[in-house]
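Pair request: fold both.
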Amino acid sequence: MLTLKNFELQVNDAVVHRGRAYYEKQAVTDLEEAEKDCWYARVKGSESYMVEVRLVKKNNIESYSCDCPFEGGICKHVVAALFYMKDAFKHAHTAGNPEETAALKAAADKAGDVSEGRKYTELCRKIIKGYTNGGFIDRNSANSLAKELGTLTGESRFLIDNRELREAFIVLQAMIPEVIKVFSHCDDSGGNIGDVIFQAIELIKVIAKTEGIDAGLQEDIFNFIRSSVSRNVYFDYGDFGYEMVDLYQSLALKLGKEQTYLKYVEEQIDSVSPDEDPYRKKYFLVRKIVFLKAIGRTEEARLLSQQHLDFADVRKEEVNSLIDRKEYSEAKRLLFEGIEIAKQKRFPGIVTEWEKGLLRIAELENDVNRIRYYAKRFAFDIGFDQHYYHQWKNTFNAAEWKIEIENYIEEVTKKVESQYQEDKGSAWYFPESMLLELLAPVFIEEHYPDWMLTLLRSETDLKVVLKYHKYLVEQYPLELLAIYLPALERFAEVSGGRGHFQALAAHMKTIMDAIPEGKQAIIALAKELSRKYPRRPALAEELKAIIQMEEPGQHNIG
């Protein structure tokens, strides 16, 4: 049985934590004994809730209830009321000793002011310890641990929503340093512990950016972030430190702490030795350049950029600055230079990034030929990109575009056919399949279903045919059916296991619904497959539902 003396030891820690927070924020009011051993209290939350507690012998809790919508057993409002009752009864017992009563009150006040952060720290440690076995937290335990720690971020989110910003920050400030320690003895390959920290950092950002936030709280957040990002652990196990640096910079600007932040960034740059991964150095160089510009020291920023253009991120920042100042010629020079460097280092991704910078400038300068060149490239660079396709298309009028796109189709067709002739004898593909993959997006964009149908006639892969179903079924139902029948048969031939047979029957049903005039042909195929594979009883069972769709009196040809 729960008792006022030790109820917090028998209730879920997260609920106890939330209830205690309500109690300490003086959310419990109007405690009264309505009848013998039946107590009522009002608890203020998102609304005002009524809690009822029945006691036996003044200590044992016989029953409790709350009119809040929580359905998971004992709620935080009941726990808050129990803490209030426990404290009230204790004070009542010592009321005859004024010195003892005053001491208790002073201790309670001090605990509320000083130890709230410590309380959350101890709670985190207790939660983490519960999932640690032999000094290690395995993957399954890490996932469960993350879920329980999520109750703390959830509590912080609730406090933020109720504009109890300092209380929310106290939770997060206590939580993050304890959770970050876990990585040294934890298998977080699922990324769940990392997600908890990222969520906590995001919540601190929300608090810091809340309109009307107390300046003292902003200062506390600034100091917490400054302390955190000075520790390597925040960078060694993930990008947590980098996430915090963004907030550090914005708070430095708001609070007039420019020199503090700048000194930190310079220390980070200097701390990276030549044999270390240069990413961290590049990152902080860019941060310094951006910050120098933000505080008006633009010439220093420019000189620093010029000294480190061999770093792609620094070059990118300088190019963006030149574009902002409309110094397009110099920006293009840096981009072309960057392309040559990236090619020499065999960094194709960086080459593409610089070329997209050239496209951006071409748009600003209305350089149509360069827009066409790069937009066409990027439209088909990796798969199909609709954005760049339309950017390319929009540089032509309707008549010009028809000639342009049909020339492109012809160009691709000749290239594939020529390659196929070279590979003949060793080719693993059919030219029609290759052309379909390359040109189908164009046929869809330009509404050329007949061209798509021509290529699809040679396709026997059911999944590929289904991929283009919606573009052809209304205009060419019977032609599409003629493609489906051999594709369905091949799907049955290469299938194995009931899951595949169920998929086959489902596809048959879909096709019959979409092409009603093909119903009998599908049923006939189902019958033929059942006869053809007598040793596949699972196939016959799944196709039985299709065969039974045949209407009485109808017979299939063949």
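--- second member of the pair ---
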Amino acid sequence: MKDGPGQPPHSPQDQQAPQDNKTRIQGRAVDARTRVQAPAKATPAAAQAEIQLTRIRQAIREQNSSQGFLRAKQIADRALAANKIILNNRFVLEATLGAGGMGTVYKAKDLRKVEASDPNPYVAVKVLNDDFKNHPNAFITLQREASRSHILSHPNIVTVHDFDRDGDVIYMTMELLQGIGLEPLIRQHKGKGLEKAKALRIVREIGIALAHAHQKHIIHSDLKPGNIFVCADGAKVLDFGIARLTSQTAASDFDAGSLGALTPAYASLEMFNGEDPHPADDVYALAIIAYELLAGEHPYQRKPAGIALKEKLRPAPIKSLTKQQWKTLERGLKLRRAERIQDITQFYKGLTQRRRSIKGLLAATVLISALGGTITYRYLVGDELDSRIAETYSRGQSCLTNGDFTCALDSAKAVLQLDASHQAARALQSAAEDQLQAQQQNELIGQFESCIHSADESCAKDALRRLKEVGMTARAAELEYRLIQFQSQQAQEQIMTQARECASQRDWVCIIQLSERAPELGNPEFLELVTQAQQARAQEQQALAERRREFQSLVNRAEACLAAKDYSCAARYAQNALSLGVDRIAAQSLVQRIDFAKEEYQRNLQRAENVLAKGQACFAKKNYSCAIASSESALEFVPDYAPALELRRASQKAVEELKSQIVIE
């Protein structure tokens, strides 16, 4: 599944949804079926998230005006409007991808990548759920998963970027995978299993990843389909959250297995019994997964190992496997560790490596014997050699009749090594090669059909490439046209799915952007949604313009009241402007200025009253100069302060009366 703006990803998180489809993050309800939802009414956590987004938007405005910052600002604005969760002012949680034992995984947009104009700004964010988060060692567990994932850097193990916390939210970021989870893939083939070659390829890739971890003395301890993701470049193992260390490592290392997070249908008997971790635990889980891939069902009816042992359950043989392959798988499924294959490499190689048939080995024996020199050997053994040639040729014909074309080809080649002039063997070789080529072509065509049915584009492209390699260019061209049609149909279906989701959320901008991406899409439903979105968007723009006019009017009135020192009037208009939500930063700044001016006025008024009290005392003592000076000082703090004006007038009048009583002779 291709991921990017407007396209829903398949990710490591296409796992089983949580039972109640809800997870709480900082007091917000998160719906696993759609995206991060806002609560019906605001909570302190919701207000905090809104403040965080406001700060991001303000910082972007102040710091830079480049395209990257402008794009990040737009994303922050939309996130603010939709009340989406944002972690550490960086990761905007856009959709819930799945859940596991430790927590919930989200598709998130990394605003730092947006600022850097990264073409793929998406990551996966795993957030610990409340039950796991409240464990005293939860933060240690997530840190260990991140650090071990760096240690376990491997093409078949998911890449973990970092871990962090935002308040009481503990989370980890990792690569956002493209493909399909193994769990839904197994469900698609329930009761019948995958095509054998594809199933064994997946088992081999998982086995290689586990072998790499075991070399580092790390046991996964929670291997299950929900922790495996199938990408175009191979299967990837994820969630080493409760990975445990073998006894070869330091005993003081924290054991995340003590948290009790295991999956009963895939956990070994020894894990239930609390025994030390062992590679054979992962062998058991991989054997269960291999059986599900090949047979389409759980070998023990999804019952825990202890119950399966008590009920004496035995897995039914898988007919598509050779005797050696079934023997390997059966040993991997043993409920008791002592009877089970101990080494993961031995298990996956025994199940996936091709072994030559007994008939082919016999033909090879004849060939090896002939390499010493055909003429000398014929001279020494005479009729015995002719008998061996006849026997080998007869075996080859029998193999051809029975459809074992590899055996027939090996036999023909062995005969020709002994007798290069054997025309019948040459004809047998040609017939076997033709049949093998036809068989391979049919298998590739069948693989292509299966890939299309499973919506696996990478698999289908691989089948087309191999068809061209074997010379079926015309047939490959026909199938390639089908693939193009399929891709077009898939793209249209994805766009329609996104458009419906955007419409359900009344995200009209999203629908308009989709119409710009796919202007040729003539689906009537899509065209109707686009028309609806354009009309709604126009109405929203008109309403926004009206709110902006009203906002500016309220701001102007508040400023006028502030200039007149009518702080109650100013505060009333400023709060009304803030409630419109047009420019919250400007409105909040105005409210703060009003509050500051009011507080400053109150402080100056108190100072004026204190000075005036001294002046009134001077007036009572007929110290009019002191009274006038005090009233002047009070007026410095509060101009037009009536009591100060009155004291100054009275003092000046008293001075004038005294002057009039003085007679100069």
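Observation on the second member. The longest strand covers residues 91-99.
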